[in-house]
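Morning!

This is the sequence you dropped in the shared folder:
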Amino acid sequence: MHVEKEFGSTFSLGRNLTIGLLDHLGKAIVVGHYDNKVFPTEAVLAEQYGVSRSVTREAVKMLTAKGLLIARPRQGTVIQPTLQWNLLDKDVLRWLLERKFSLRLLRQFTELRVSVEPKAAELAAHNAAYEDLQRMKLAFERMVRADGGDGDPTVADIDFHISILFASGNPFYYQFQELIRTALMTSIQFTTRVNQATPNIEAHENIMKAIFDRDPKRAYAAMHLIVNDVLLVIHAQEDADKRAL
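The structure's back. Tokens below.
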């Protein structure tokens, strides 16, 4: 089904109309299409997108569950402030990537990485099972091959970092995987553009060796060094942007 979108372009909702509508509305909210606008009623959305009221109702319900919308008495459905969004939700993170690049958002992503990833590496040195170590080793080997032109270095780098979350042995750390994936995707694009930098193979190998050696302090320090270096680049760019004003 093709419909004319409020914002000008023609698109298809796909075979699953509810999921298609969820995706288009969620992306529109997150990238700011509805900023300073009243969010449409279910009846208006149904007419605009050429779908039934039950489809719009279900899509709105799903967006509400993700924290993007809330129904208020005498106000109807309104968009929630960003602080209320479920920022660990896979869809919300994907929609955030559709936004215009924001150095502030990247800094916030990286500040969380500094809090999470070094501790995950420390825990991995304590808790990693044989299967976790093999997964990490395979991810690192893909990084090495990608650095030589065989494969996607971004995907390999992300897989390595995600493998450490799993190796931590703490299921709460697993829940950060989509956020870390999104943060890394944004971070790698930024550092490549600013410094023409590629993933530091030696620095990643130092993390892996510390985990394999069951040395928690060394693993923590090695991961902290990598992530904090990104934060320093971001701070330097923010300072440069301020001076340019």
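Headline: DSSP finds eleven helices and four strands in the chain.

More detail when I'm at my desk.
O.
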